Amino acid sequence: MQQASSSNAPLLSVRDLSVDFGHGPSAARVVDGVSFDLHHDRTLAIVGESGSGKSITSLAILGLLKHLGGRVAGGEIRFHSDVLGRDVDLGQLSERDLRKVRGNEIAMIFQEPMTSLNPVYSIGSQMVETLALHQDLSRRDARRKAMEFLDLVRLPHVGRLLDSYPHQLSGGMRQRVMIAMALCCQPKVLIADEPTTALDVTIQAQILHIIRDLQAEMRTSVIFISHDMGVVSEMADDVLVMRASKPIEAGPVTEVLSRPAMPYTRALLAAVPRIGSMTGTTMPRLFAIPGQKTAPDAVPAKPVDRSKPVLEIEDLTVRFDIRGGLMSRVTHRVHAAEKVSFDIYPGETLALVGESGSGKSTVGKTIQQLQEPVSGAMRFHGQDIFSLPAEDRKAFRKQTQYVFQDPYGSLNPRKPVGESLIEPAWVHGLVTSRAEAREKVADLLVKVGLPAEHAGRYPHQFSGGQRQRLCIARALACDPSLIIADEAVSALDVSVQAQVVNLLMKLQAEQGLSYLFITHDMAVVERISHRVAVMYLGQIVEIGTRQQIFENPQHPYTRRLLSAVPVLDPGVRRSRPPLEGEIASGMRAVGDEPAPIEFVAIGDGHFVAAHAQ
Amino acid sequence: MPVFRFILQRVLQAVLVTLVVTLFVAFAVRLTGDPAVMLTSESSSVTPEDLNRIREALGLNQPFHMQYFDFIRSLVTFDLGNSFFRGSIRDLIGIALPSTLLLALASMGISILISIPLGIHAALHKGGISDQVIRVLSLVGLSFPNFWLGIMFVLLFSIAFPILPASGFESWSALILPATTIGIILTATNVRLVRTQMLETLSAQYVMVARAKGLNERAVIYKHALRNAAIAIVTFLGLQFGNLIGGLVVVELVFNWPGMGTLSIEAIAQRDYPLLQATVSILAIMIVAVNLAVDLVYGLIDPRIRVA
Q1: How far is it, in rounded angstroms, from Cα A148 to Cα B15?
Q2: How far is CA B241 from the centre of its chain?
Q3: What is the dihedral of CA A553, A557, A561, A564, to 10 degrees?
Q4: 3-class SS of residue A404
Q5: How far, in Å, CA of B215 to CA of A607, rounded?
Q6: Which residues from B are below 8 Å from A122, CB to CB?
Q7: How much is the pTM?
Q8: Cβ(B185)–Cβ(A99) under 8 Å?
Q9: Are strands A311-324 and A70-81 parallel, antiparallel or unpaired?
Q10: Nearest CB to B211: which of A64, A129, A168?
């Protein structure tokens, strides 16, 4: 134990850790026999899918389990605490002593930056609170130190920021505040639980960069919890893979990622969409799913017939009024979509990519007629929809179907799924008898790869991936010609994501469906799409075939999006330039309208905004 | 700027609500019949000329909007005129309003003092024995009619063990029984409200973050969770004030408390419509004022309202 301070001994050593929730025979083991060492100046990534026990392991280290109803059932967590001046087992430590370690020697950043900061206290008071707790500082010194750390995470105007409240900041800024708050007592260990999962990809790149920089600067060891092998590859020195509460595989990142020993690790890695893996191909291709026979080319790649488009969007403009002042006059408008134009052909997937606030979902909702446009035209099989009277528009609504991001929220929890599935078909009069409905439900379930007899089950009896399959089945019930998938696979674990994307591609090949695939995830886009449109602040800045966009991106924003995606290349730390600033907002004063974008043709069907030239 | 806008908006709303309520009161009071006839119903020798003279004296032969306008003016100047039988309304209300406010504040205070610690305790020990006991007791409290509870208290503490006065407001000790009666009734709902609100905020991410900082449980609960729960609790207390006034009328009667409730009931019994109109309107204005105060306090607690 004397060598605790030498750099060879691990800083934190977890041995055979088990965590139980509940008591007696009904107790559930959520972490089962986990062991790992965290060394000085190193980053250990704990990887796994939802429910693998990776977050619970980190809460066990901080002794926070009892507030969730869990407890350490076995094993030990050895840590040398300088504050307490001795080696301790964090699993057995008294609450009093744990409080001296928490936030001081071991700090944590959580997944949800939007809810991690207390909404009723200013940023300054929340940071000063931590500093006052662990360090003997006057109020003024604590404020100065808080400013110093906000500056370190590259937040602007730190003086003013101290008096701001969380709701005034964006998600990325809040996560940076969290990092500053976690690091302000210079902890020896930083636990980061999926710190970038809820953020946009360019903001994710910023945050990862900041964590890595500060780690090197402050010589902090990091436990990085993630489900994303790409992020792990960029961040970690060592990896621990967990599955269903158990550790599966552990080792240095280069070894585990390039020579995975376990099939599950291989499956996780294979499921990570890799940008660039499609270079040279023109058509979409299925994901390879380990353990399944489906060859990547099982779907016949039919060339898209470009004679008659399914949907033509022309100069679509959607704005939201912001009222202010005493008279509630419109002072600003959010230009959610500004003169957006594109076509989608039968059997084609057009990916609409962009980050939060780019207006991509607004475009989808306007096409589904959930949102009224300010101006613009939409032609469906040549018929102008917006000029039709309201009753006639309804008929067209069934031809486009929407699949939402959240499969939990979009199925009625109190109805058997069979009823939810057939509901749109009833509404549009496509089925008329119960027998017909039953047959159709069975048919739909089989189409999306679920057993027909599951029609009587309720949504909570399905997994997240299965629920998204149900939503797709419901979308198919009206035999639509266009499906709008709005971040439809973003909330799913990678392995499940791959399966759902494959399902979408198979259905497209079988039924000649067209997709408008709205997402921020460039890696999925590369697999599924024929063509890609990049949106930025309500305008399309670049559009072209998948190959053109990925292999010859012209607009700086397209390049920025592509370069921000974490790459699965273990051990290689890309020294990408730190991207400064926030995603700009599309809010403008009344009268200050954005200049319409002029497009320049780069290649056949490849257009880019002229301002990029 | 957003703060001023917020305050101005709320004040304008309160004024509008007050106008609507008083209009309704003035109209409804007149629906109960001709005051001149009621006033004279006891005596047998009333001629139509007598009635007309009375109407003229009371201003009843003027059009309704003129009467309403006079009424509003009397409220604004607080020159409320005379009751039919008991002299200056201003003097009557001058005595009744402070005693009612005192009783209302004391009841609310008792309820807050009991329900916040109990609600927090129940939330922290969710599903435990103390939580169950608190929930059952609050259900029992909810099922009591307030007048019955008041009578029981009188029987127990004034008759069986004569330690507290049963009625009137001659000494401060007379406040204890009526205030406790209403306080307990309010506590029954408030305890449940505090419990659910605390459960919700305790499961919020920022509470876990506060714990991960190394704060002790007291700071986590009282500083981080309670302040957030208070946003909903304060709103509810404002809405509850309306119910409180309703309950107050009955309990004042039980304890013969010289407040606005007793005064209005007497005005109804005697068909003293100028007095009735004044007391009901002032009670309504009180409720509106309390809700305005709540809105402003709400802005103080929640920066999302204060800072745009």
Answers
A1: 49
A2: 4
A3: 110
A4: coil
A5: 56
A6: 303
A7: 0.80
A8: no
A9: unpaired
A10: A64
* CA nearest to A111 within chain B: B205
Query: Could you read off the pLDDT of B215-272 as tens digits, one per residue?
Result: 999 999 999 999 999 988 988 888 888 888 888 888 998 898 999 999 998 888 887 8
Cβ proximity of A518 and A352 under 8 Å = yes
Residues linked to residue A601 through DSSP beta bridges, in sequence order: A607
The label of the residue with tokens 């898209």 reads A304
Contact between residue A93 and residue A102 where contact means Cβ atoms under 8 Å apart: no
**For residue A594, what is the DSSP state?**
P
Beta-carbon contacts of A490 under 8 Å, excluding residues fewer than 6 positions away, are A405, A519, A520, A521
pLDDT digits (tens, 9 = 90+) for A296-319: 555 656 677 788 899 999 999 998
Buried/exposed code over A537-550 (b: 16+ C-beta within 10 A; e: otherwise): bbbbbbbbbbbbbb
Contact A120 B210 (CB under 8 A): no
d(CA A178, CA A166): 11
Query: What are the C-alpha distances in Å from A55 to residues A257, A491, B232?
Result: 21, 17, 31
For B176-207, the pLDDT digits (tens) are: 999 999 999 899 999 999 999 999 999 999 99
Neighboring chain B residues of A165 at a CB cutoff of 8 Å: 303-304, 307
Integer CA distances (angstroms), A275 to A278, A279, A390, A565, B160, in order: 7, 9, 43, 8, 86
Chain B residue closest in CA terms to A115:
B205
Distance from B14 to chain A by nearest Cα, in Å?
A: 17
Three-state secondary structure string covering B46-72: CCHHHHHHHHHHHCCCCCHHHHHHHHH
Q: Are strands A375-380 and A311-324 parallel, antiparallel or unpaired?
A: antiparallel
> Which candidate in B12, B213, B216 is best for mutational testing of the A interface (most A CBs within 10 A)?
B213
**Residue pair A167/A133 in contact by the 8 Å Cβ criterion:** no
CA distance B97 to A130: 48
Cβ A118–B304 below 8 Å, yes or no?
Answer: no
Residues in chain B: 308
Two tokens, residue A143? 């404020």
Cα-Cα-Cα-Cα torsion A301, A306, A311, A316, nearest 10 degrees, comes to: 110
CB-CB contact of A336 with A586 (8 Å): yes
How many Å apart are CA A446 and CA A469, to the nearest integer?
10
Return the number of CB contacts < 8 Å for A and B. 76
Candidate from B8, B209, B304 with C-beta closest to A167: B304
Exposed/middle/buried for residue B129 (C-beta within 10 Å: 0-12, 13-18, 19+): exposed
The answer to whether the beta carbons of residues A227 and A242 sit under 8 Å apart is no
Count Cα neighbours of A308 within 13 Å in the Cβ-side half-sphere: 4
pLDDT per position as a tens digit, A211-221: 888 888 888 99
The residues, ordered by sequence, that sit 6+ positions from A24 with a Cβ below 8 Å of its Cβ are none
Structure tokens at B207: 């509470």
For an interface test with B, the pick among A68, A90, A118, A177 (most B C-beta atoms closer than 10 Å) comes out as A118
B contacts of A102 (beta carbons < 8 Å): 211-214
Record: contact A99-B215, CB cut-off 8 A: yes
SS3 A527: helix
Closest-CA residue to A417 (of A373, A382, A448): A448
Task: Give B13-28 pLDDT, tens digit per residue.
Answer: 889 998 998 888 888 8
Q: Give dist(CA A165, CA B130) in Å, integer.
A: 37
Order across the sheet with A86-89: list the strands: A28-38, A12-21, A70-81, A86-89
**Separation between Cα atoms, residue A547 and residue A561, nearest integer Å:** 15
Q: Kindly state the tokens that stand for A462.
A: 């399905």
Please give the residue of chain A at the shortest CA–CA distance from B301.
A120
* First CA to last CA distance, chain A: 63
